[in-house]
From TrEMBL, chains A, B:
Keywords of the record: Isomerase
Entry-linked InterPro entries: Asp/Glu/hydantoin_racemase, Asp/Glu_race, Asp_race
Protein name: Aspartate/glutamate racemase family protein
Family as reported in the entry's similarity comment: Belongs to the aspartate/glutamate racemases family.
One Pfam family matching this protein: Asp_Glu_race
SUPFAM superfamilies: Aspartate/glutamate racemase
Amino acid sequence: MEINIGIIGGMGPKATNQFLDRITELTDAANDQEHVRYILYSDPAIPDRIGAYFNGTKSPVDAINKGIDFLERNGITTIAIPCNTAHIWFSEFKAGVNLLNMVDLTVKAILDSGYKHPGFLATTATIKSRLYIKNLEEAGISAIIPEQEDTVMQAVKLVKLGEISRAKATLKPVVKELEDNGSDSIIMACTEIPVILNREDTELPLIDSDRILAEKIILSAGKRLKPYNK
Amino acid sequence: MEINIGIIGGMGPKATNQFLDRITELTDAANDQEHVRYILYSDPAIPDRIGAYFNGTKSPVDAINKGIDFLERNGITTIAIPCNTAHIWFSEFKAGVNLLNMVDLTVKAILDSGYKHPGFLATTATIKSRLYIKNLEEAGISAIIPEQEDTVMQAVKLVKLGEISRAKATLKPVVKELEDNGSDSIIMACTEIPVILNREDTELPLIDSDRILAEKIILSAGKRLKPYNK
């Protein structure tokens, strides 16, 4: 059987590695051979999403479509793009295959969860584009945007520089703000966030777009999820 | 410019993720765009190397050659295979491109380092095949094989099951043995080993085949290594 799962990564590299680790850790496998087979097209040179959204610098669409073409040409039938901000341009991606929509999958998980006041951690481009917010509002859920939105961006940039412990310290007051302002959960709507924030860092339930997409990939590959125990 | 770096991964998945993380962490990059671009062909279904070597089960050669074909067909010019044990079959790999030899690169690093009595952590197949040992002996260096060789295999298997902290506890007495028996350094000649063993765990210098291959990939991609500070 051929490999049929494709991933477009590099946005950014550390977040992609975390995503691959999620796939590995969440698969119920007793040996190497029971793990997911996939092709990763990792192109960190894909133009910066934030700059494209706010400053009109080069759009990431062509570079992402090049990756999609590459994967399709090689027989891939399901593609994941583990970068929430890139999903701003989702309608411009040219896929003749099953292109998973990370935002839709996560919004569905939020609706299923029953949380009504989720705190929202994302890049400023994801926030301003109302990528998640619009879908949630339509379902009667108002996401709580932290006042310290710029601080979230700083933490994301620190992850991209490999400064994980500094990123964690930077994000801490934002998490505190969400805990204090009535959030009943936290949506991690940027793949850099779960690199630094985990269950030890807050008592609020975490809704993790990265994990949700990883689980979808495992199931799409015909593999089993590990029993949920953490 | 096209992507010209290829990686064959999945042997095992956790070790591959660690290898990708090494590439990310060791690259001197101020933003996503300065990181290495690559295609990862990740096929954990590649037949088990240990079984093939000792029990004559299916050889991994055809599956690895399929990966090499895939990468070559897509314009890749440099390929890394981050699995030491797979290098037992290196002469059977069909590459028309620059196929990096992790063992040769690491042996060169050992010779450059000047260590004369390196402790040797590897799978039993790597040990019995004398993959590193022969090259080192020819240079007058006798690698010290731990008496608790089976324990190393247990630790490797635990990594493959995602049981990292148990793997660390399992490997600890072997590291103690190497410290006590006159080893002047430790060769990590299995990509599962650096997932569990790092500089905090021993005072002996670590010679890490995974890191050496990652650095070679970064340079092959025309990127810069981070200044060495740890």
